[in-house]
Design a protein that fits this description.
Shape of chain B: globular
Structural class of chain A: mainly beta
Number of helices of chain B: 0
Shape of chain A: globular
Number of strands of chain B: 11
Radius of gyration of chain A: 13 Å
Oligomer: heterodimer
Low-confidence stretches of chain B: none
Mean pLDDT of chain B: 92
Largest sheet of chain A: 6 strands, mixed
Radius of gyration of chain B: 13 Å
Amino acid sequence: TQLLEQSPQFLSIQEGENLTVYCNSSSVFSSLQWYRQEPGEGPVLLVTVVTGGEVKKLKRLTFQFGDARKDSSLHITAAQPGDTGLYLCAGARGQGGKLIFGQGTELSVKP
Amino acid sequence: GAVVSQHPSWVICKSGTSVKIECRSLDFQATTMFWYRQFPKQSLMLMATSNEGSKATYEQGVEKDKFLINHASLTLSTLTVTSAHPEDSSFYICSASITRGSGEQYFGPGTRLTVT
């Protein structure tokens, strides 16, 4: 059973297009992180959202945490080839700090 | 800040031998370190959670006698793959958190293990 459903799992778009990645769960998370990973490297933390309804922006990336803290979205405006990579959402539950990862979204932005 | 290193970045070993992977937090003390395994084009699979000075907590299905974890200090954790087999070939990634329970983890660059 996948506790954090991430979609789409694959996305291939042209430079300049917009896209949205979704992470959904029936569980409540204390916080949710978004990471970006390039081949052969470890994930890099992009953002942490904590408060329900919170919206954070990182240049062309907009992250939103659902009001009930069960879902989140990542929106990229005017995608660039440099945005290509694996995007991972991960929710934190409990005191141990363990993360539950979504399946990941493999994004390819073609010039 | 919040830099995590791993060593080695890649290793090739023969079947039946053991391999040790180090994970270090370079500019902070990590309350907790985590070990993950990742297959190509897939997400991360948590193997175990490690706190300094105590035994690691392994996820269901992960053999603790095969994947030995030692957390000697607040900046160093090691994963030893014992009696490695080709099916253990994978990308192993560690992470560290600064604040216990915060959920915010900083990842190392990963170690590519190939068992021949």
